[in-house]
Design brief:
It is built from 13 helices and 22 strands. The strands form 6 sheets. The protein has a 7-stranded antiparallel beta sheet. The chain has a 5-stranded parallel beta sheet with strand order 7-2-1-11-21, covered by helices on one side. Helix 1 packs parallel to helix 13 and helix 9 packs antiparallel against helix 12. The longest helix has 15 residues. The structure holds flavin-adenine dinucleotide. The site of flavin-adenine dinucleotide has 38 residues, from helix 1, helix 2 and helix 13.
Length: 405
């Protein structure tokens, strides 16, 4: 089949690109090996799809080339996606921190994108395995105009020829949703560099012996500021049987490097040294005192661990001297723990790293060295923070390529 554009991967980015290109009058073939359309949209946001974030700015994205995302994000904004939802009468609400969720199930977003693609004449091929991609470069005298090249894509269903090939195969997280490393293999085939990949927005784990005292506290959570290097997030921290999770930990996991300690300010709104000084005549035990802010089980274990680390026992507050109060406060404001690893791609929401953006045009997502080849969405080395940013990148990069293919 001859077509203008072949898109491999019909997730968030692929669907957006397909509908945009179709609306421009391009003939589009959208291929996916999965049986179901856009499985990650379906499971996202706890089934309600946190489809964008009102505060989306380039600073909310991680990349070895931090300015790359600017152009695409400026040309397709959260308001543009909201307008699309409104056109389809899909209700939504802001949950917190600018995060927009559907009022009903995520399926509404999938149905909307599917109907836009159908209306734009996009031909969808689900359950379709790509077997081979061949590229015929343009004759020498055409190359400067970036035209005249051709892609030939063989699949388990049909063979396709096109002048534009868009790779929208996403990242590696949650393999059971259809995630594969295929996009990275295509990059390798064409000599396009890939930055280091790692699971992002993922729970962190600790060495079992280190974590033993806390493992019993699964489900306990508290508000905190968690930092590594210059990056900090204030949200909930959740204790799990293997380590730490919750929004603050998922956020910091994308910035955390192996071997680094997390710095956790467990009482960000309180000057603990001053408060302990105020209570220096109190007969209340430290652990009991801390139950104002933490579950009793957590306060007990944390104080027992404090004793192991510093020698400061859990005692009535009136038995501590100034130096000890200072140290207790410092430990509460900067609890340092070093994860041993992450829960991996099986539990990660995203893949950090990907197609090196230095090889792509920030305006169109086209490969600088391979005219006609585009990479969009999560397969690219642009990773959003938690809170709707990853979909905003999928829409924005899909839109950018959709205007160019
Ligand atoms: C549990 C979970 C919850 C999430 N919640 C949110 C959220 O609420 N908000 C948010 O912004 N982000 C969320 N994300 C992240 C978000 O889902 C992704 O960043 C986004 O889907 C990426 O879009 P994409 O189109 O690049 O890739 P995907 O949506 O992953 O789509 C890739 C498509 O390519 C197909 N594919 C893969 N390999 C092949 C192949 N070899 N041949 C053919 N097709 C192939 C896949 O089947 C898939 O359909 C969540 C992620 C997870 C895992």
């Amino acid at each position: 089949m001859k077509t203008d554009v072949i898109i491999i991967g019909s997730g968030a980015a692929g669907l957006m690109c397909a509908m945009q290109a179709g609306q421009r009058g391009r003939s589009v073939v959208l291929i996916d090996h999965a049986k179901k359309l856009a499985e990650k949209i379906r499971i996202s946001g706890g089934g309600r799809c946190n489809f964008t974030n009102l505060n989306a700015k380039p600073e909310n994205f991680i990349s070895t080339n931090p300015n790359f995302c600017r152009s695409a994000l400026a040309r397709y904004t959260p308001q543009d996606f909201i307008a699309l939802l409104q056109k389809h009468n899909i209700g939504y609400h802001e949950k917190t921190l600018g995060q927009l969720f559907c009022n009903d199930e995520s399926e509404a977003v999938i149905a909307m994108l599917r109907s836009e693609c159908d209306a734009a004449g996009v031909k969808r091929f689900m359950n379709c395995e790509v077997e081979e991609i061949n590229y015929t470069p343009a004759p020498d005298d055409w190359q400067e105009k970036r035209v005249g090249h051709k892609f030939h894509v063989s699949t388990s269903r049909e063979d396709f020829n096109a002048t534009s090939l868009v790779i929208a195969t996403g990242g590696l997280s949650i393999p059971k949703t259809g995630a594969t490393p295929y996009g990275y293999h295509v990059a390798e085939q064409f000599g396009i560099p890939i930055t280091k990949l790692k699971p992002g927005l993922v729970p962190l784990t600790f060495a079992p012996d280190d974590w033993k005292p806390y493992a019993e506290l699964t489900g306990v959570s508290f508000d905190a500021i968690v930092s590594v290097g210059k990056q900090s997030f204030r949200e909930n921290v959740l204790v799990t049987h293997r380590g730490l999770s919750g929004p603050a930990i998922l956020q910091i996991s994308s910035y955390w490097q192996h071997g680094e300690a997390l710095h956790i300010n467990m009482l960000p709104d309180i000057d603990m040294e001053a408060l302990l000084a105020e209570h220096k005549t109190s007969k209340k035990q430290l652990a009991k005192f801390l139950t104002q802010w933490f579950a009793k089980s957590f306060a007990d274990v944390w104080c027992a661990q404090l004793a192991e680390r510093t020698g400061i026992e859990n005692k009535p507050l009136n038995q501590y001297n100034d130096k000890q109060r200072k140290l207790i406060a410092a430990q509460l404001h900067d609890w340092q723990v070093t994860p041993s690893g992450t829960m991996g791609y099986a539990k990660a929401e995203v893949t950090c790293g990907g197609i090196d953006t230095h090889a792509l045009s920030s305006k169109t997502m086209e490969c600088i060295e391979v005219p006609g080849l585009y990479f969009i969405g999560e397969v690219v080395d642009v990773t959003g923070q938690l809170g709707g940013y990853n979909f905003q990148w999928a829409w924005a990069s899909g839109y950018a390529a959709g205007q160019a293919v």
